[in-house]
C-alpha cells in the first residue's frame, strides 16, 4: 500500500506529516511513500531530501490523494480534502471530531476510514503516538522563547561590571504537558519560576523541574478537589476567588506569565483579569497558550500580539508548533509512524485496522461508512 502526505492547506501552517526519516521507517513496514511536491519546504525538508529517502514526489494534491491508500496530514481536513476520501482509503490527521460534525458526515458518506490523532487514548502504551503531547511540549517551549523575544531583559540574574541584573520572575499557570515544558525552559534559562495548577498532584513534578508550586490559602483538604481522570474540571466559585486573589498578589511581582490552563471540551477558564494586567510592570509579557479556546487572559486576542497602555505585551498566537515546524514535523511524523506500526502488525505494507485494539478503536472516528465517534471507554487503562 502507499502512504501519501499532501501539502498542508491551512493558511500559514508550516508543518508536514511525513519527513524523510519517517518515510524510511514507513518503508521498513513495507509501505511505498509519496509526498506532494513542496509539502516539506516550510519545515525545511526539500523534495530532494525526500527523493533521496525513496519517496515519490507527486505534483498535485489531487494526484496524491488519488494514488495513496493512506493519507497522513497535520491539520483538520477541509471539505475539498474530505471529498477526496473514498472507500478503502484511510486518513490519519488531527480532525477535531467533537467540533466537526460535518467532517464526520462527509467521511461517512465517502466510506473512508479516519484516524483522529487527538483521540489517541492517553495510556502508557500509546504515548509514542500522543501527538497532543508532542505538540503541547513544543508549544510550552516556544511560549517561553516567544516571551523572551518580547522581554527587554535577561531571564537569568547577572552580576556584571556594568551593574547587577535581577533574574526574571516567570509564572506558569497550568502545569500539564505544555506548562511543564514552559517551566523546564524558563528555569533552564535562569528565571525564578512559579507554577500553579488546580491539580495538586502536579506540585511534585513542578518542584522537580526547579520551580516553586504556588499553594492557595484554601480551606479544603486538597488544592481543589475538582480534578477527575488526570484532567481538570471547573473550579468552585470559592476556589476560583482564592486563585484570583493569589494571582492579584503575584501580578505586580512577575515579569512573564505563561498561561496554559484548559478544561477538556470547554472554553478556557479566565484566570488573568484586566486589573491583573493593569497592575503588571511595563515591559512584562503574557503568553496565552489557551488563546484558541478563548484565552486565560481577559485581554488576549487570538493570533495577535498586543501591547497594553501600561506596556504589557500579550501574545495570543495559536500556531506555536508551526512556528517550530522542523521540530514539530519530526515529532508528529514519528507519532504517525508509530500509529502505522500498530496498524501494520505483519510489517507487510498492509493496514490491519483492528477495531478490537483500544488505541486504534479510540482514535478511529469514521470506519467503513459509519461514524465511530465518540468511542466506548477503553477496556484497559
Ligand atoms: P490540558 O492541556 O487539558 O490542561 C492544561 C493544564 O491546565 C492541566 O494541568 C489542568 O489541570 C490545568 N488547569 C485547568 N484549569 C485550571 C485552572 N483554573 N487553574 C490552573 N490550572 C488549570 O492538560 P494536558 O497537558 O493535556 O494534561 C492533562 C493530564 O493528562 C495530565 O494529568 C497529564 O499528566 C496527563 N497526560 C497523560 C498522558 C499519558 O498517560 N500518556 C499523556 C499526556 C498527558
- Dominant shape: globular
Order of helices and strands: EHEHEHEHEHEHEEEHEHEHEHEEEHHHEE
Strand content: 15-25%
Unreliable residue runs: none
Unique ligands: nicotinamide-adenine-dinucleotide
> Mean pLDDT score, rounded?
95
Sheet with the most strands: spatial strand order: 3-2-1-4-5-6-16-17
Helicity, in percent? 25-40%
SS-based structural class?
alpha/beta
Largest sheet composition:
8 strands, mixed
Number of strands: 17
Number of helices: 13
What is the C-alpha radius of gyration, as a whole number of Å?
A: 22 Å
Distance between the termini: 32 Å
Keywords:
381 residues; alpha/beta; 7-stranded mixed β-sheet; binds nicotinamide-adenine-dinucleotide
Q: If you had to describe this structure to a student in words, what would you say it looks like?
A:
- With 381 residues, the chain is an alpha/beta fold.
- It has 13 helices and 17 strands.
- It has helices at residues 20-28, 47-52, 61-67, 79-83, 101-110, 131-150, 177-188, 203-208, 237-250, 274-278, 320-323, 325-343, 358-363; strands at residues 2-5, 32-36, 56-58, 70-72, 90-93, 113-116, 158-160, 163-165, 169-173, 192-196, 212-213, 256-259, 285-288, 305-307, 313-315, 364-367, 370-371.
- The strands form 3 sheets. It has an 8-stranded mixed β-sheet. It has a 7-stranded mixed β-sheet with strand order 11-10-9-12-13-15-14. A two-stranded antiparallel sheet has the order 7-8.
- Strand 7 (158-160) and strand 8 (163-165) form a beta hairpin.
- The model has no long low-confidence stretch (mean pLDDT 95).
- The site of nicotinamide-adenine-dinucleotide (NAD) has 29 residues, from helix 6 and helix 7.
